[in-house]
Every structure is written in C-alpha cells, then in structure tokens.
Write a structure and sequence with these properties.
This protein is an alpha+beta fold and about 375 residues long. Strand 14 and strand 15 form a beta hairpin.
C-alpha cells in the first residue's frame, strides 16, 4: 500500500506492481500528482542534468546518493522518451516538458494501471498500525491490510493542495525521529522600513547573486510587494535562518566602479541614474539614484563617492524577518530522519515493511528539478523491494 499519489508515490507503486506485487495507491486529494501538474509553470521541471550530493540539504545530504546513483536522471529521461513526452533544457541543466505537465501525470497513472496497480483518490487516511507481520491502515473506505506500506505523503508545503504533516505523524507513531521542518524554496519577507523601499520596485527583475554565509546563487532576483522572490531568493531561503542577513549583488560579473567612473569620464553632464542604468534595469537605476541622495551631474561626483555607490550595488545587505511560509514554499526542509532509514531501500530500520520516500524524508534539493529526481529515485528504490 502506497500512501500518497504524488511523484514519489506513483513511481514507487509502478515499480512494485511491475514486480508482480498487488499495489494500492491512496491519496486524500481529488486528483493525483497536483504538484507535478502545477510545477514549472505547468511544464513540469522533472529533473536536472547536474544531479550531485552537494545540491541536497539535510542532516546527512549524502544519504540521497545511493538512490540517486541507482536510478539516475538519465534513467528517468529514458522513461520520458519511451513514453513519447518531448522535453527541452531551459537553463542550468533544468529539464522541462515541451507540452503541459499533465502529460506526465497521465503517463504515470496510466502506467500504474497498465501494470495492475489500483489508485484511490479522494480517500482520507488515518492511523497506520502493526498487524501481525504486516500493517493495518485506516481509510474512509475501511481498514486496509498490507504486507508493506510506503509513505509518500510529502511535506507541509502548499497546504491549499492538501499538504499536511500526516507522514511525519506516521513516522512518530512508530517512534521514528523527525527533524525540524520549515518552509524552503520560498520568497523572503522584510520589515516595514525595508518594504517601503522595496514595494515601488514590484515587478522588476534583475540577474543577481544572493548569498548567505558561504553559500550563494547566481540567478534572477524579483522585487515583489511583499519582499524579494525569484530563483536566487528561493534558493538561498533553504540556507537562511532567522537573525541572518543576506547579501544581494545586483551586478555580478561587472565592475560597477569602473562602469560608473567611465560614465563620468565620457559624459560628465550625465546623471547617476543614467550611469546606473548601464548596470541594472532603468527603473531600479532611478530608484537607487534617488535613494543615494546624490544629485547633480556625474562630473561633480568624486570617484570615491561613485566607488561607494558601486560597492553598495555589489554587497547590498538585507535582514529578512521571515518567509511567506508553507503557503508558497515549493518544498519542506527537514522530515523523517535519515538515520532511521536504509539508504538503499528507504525502509525504516526498526520497522520492517515500512518505507518513506520523497519529500517526507529529510532530503531537500535545490530549485530546478532536483526534488523531482529525488522523488523518482527514492520511489524507485522502495519499489524494488517493498
């Protein structure tokens, strides 16, 4: 019995049924795999070409390697090709469907049916208990008995799609440890005094580098009415903790001081906003120039002043007060402690026959298809043995 009909659950069910197991996949949502359907702007960023252990977070990031190496991104790509689903690389190794993500959902549910698996949607789940050598699972269609149970119920992210902490409660009911959970891959929010400055820029996007401690990401930064978003911010949110500042470089790869000094040398009658527009979008340039308090032509601005402006562009320090939370978080950081799981099979070491796969486990990937690949790989691993 597989609890949860998302990416990991469907894949685990398919693999177990392919081995001749009698498989029932149950999900309380009305439709299966809603996260697949909405991911990647409806195109499903289904994996990444650059899978490696350093792209995953958790108490033991290397735990994921066994499953990731045994069922790789190339293995999943081969399955997509065999299913006739066209795809393309967008950027940074991210692979997307050419057409709608519903193709992936239809393929997985069709595959499950083709190998003899059964799918129940709109069916609530209750307690899971030991019964003899197997398990008894409460559902609103009655108690179901199973020789093995694979928990693939995901984390707490995007509760409007039915996400909950159910999988963590199942783990705890069998005395398995669960690490601290928190929203990840989520926009960051700021105090009112910073929002006053940020809000007028809502809708502006810039290629930047966002850092927290020793970790940094070179991707787009998006200004919003609530703070900052965009891929670079979502990435750093997995590493950021309350009380930490982040650094935003608004012109990575550019020598801002040299650009401003050259603008001064080539046309001293120009103003700061025009010079800044050589480095950042015009709307942001105007806003930065106004905030600097500097006026008059560039010719009257000392080089040291322009250097300070450039330094502020390259290391803009901000103190987030929080994030938008599970409401918009793409994944949940933390989960079932990997110390209690077998890395090859995803089976709970202390509870034979009970498996945990996908987001419910304390394995969290970067933005860009890494979490889907963990779902496929961990689901595959459990499906070979359950």
């Amino acid at each position: 019995m597989v609890l949860g009909a998302g990416a990991a659950g469907l894949f685990a069910g398919i693999e177990a049924a392919r081995r001749g197991r009698r498989v029932l996949v149950v999900d309380h949502a009305a439709k299966p795999a809603e996260k697949i359907r909405i991911s990647g702007g409806g195109r499903c960023n289904f994996t990444n070409l650059e899978i490696s252990a350093d792209r995953y977070l958790g108490r033991n990031p290397r735990f994921a390697l066994s499953a990731l190496k045994r069922f790789t991104q190339w293995d999943f790509i081969a399955r997509m090709d065999a299913a006739g689903i066209a795809w393309h690389e967008k950027t940074l190794g991210q692979l997307f469907c050419d057409g709608p993500a519903t193709q992936v959902v239809d393929w997985l549910t069709g595959d499950l049916a083709a190998v003899g698996g059964t799918l129940w949607t709109g069916c609530s789940l209750g307690a899971v208990a030991r019964q003899g050598n197997g398990f008894a699972v409460e559902t609103d269609r009655g108690v179901q008995e199973a020789a093995a149970v694979i928990v693939a119920t995901g984390g707490k992210s995007i509760p409007k799609m039915g996400a909950s902490g159910y999988g963590y409660r199942v783990a705890e009911s069998f005395s398995l440890a669960v690490t601290e959970t928190r929203p990840a891959l989520v926009p960051l929010t700021f105090a009112e005094q910073e929002l006053v400055w940020l809000k007028p820029l809502a809708g502006v996007a810039v290629q930047g580098r966002v850092s927290c401690g020793k970790t940094g990401f070179d991707e787009a930064v998006l200004f919003t009415h609530r703070g900052l978003s965009g891929p670079a911010i979502l990435q750093i949110s997995s590493y950021w903790r309350e009380g930490q500042a982040i650094s935003v470089n608004l012109c990575p790869g550019q020598d801002g001081a040299a650009v401003l000094r050259a603008a001064k040398a080539s046309g001293g009658k120009g103003h700061l906003a025009g010079a800044l527009a050589r480095l950042v979008p015009e709307r942001l340039a105007r806003h930065l120039a106004e905030a600097s308090g500097l006026s008059g032509p560039l010719a009257e601005m000392p080089g040291a002043v322009l250097d300070r402006v450039a330094a502020g562009l390259a290391d803009w320090r901000l103190m987030p007060v929080g994030s938008e939370g599970y409401r918009t978080a793409e994944v949940t950081l933390g989960g079932v402690d990997t110390d209690g799981l077998d890395a090859r099979t995803m089976e709970a070491k202390a509870v034979p026959g009970l498996y945990f796969v996908g987001e419910v486990v304390d394995v969290t990937g970067w933005l860009g298809g890494y979490n889907f690949q963990w779902a496929w790989s961990s689901g595959w691993a459990a499906g070979q043995v359950a």
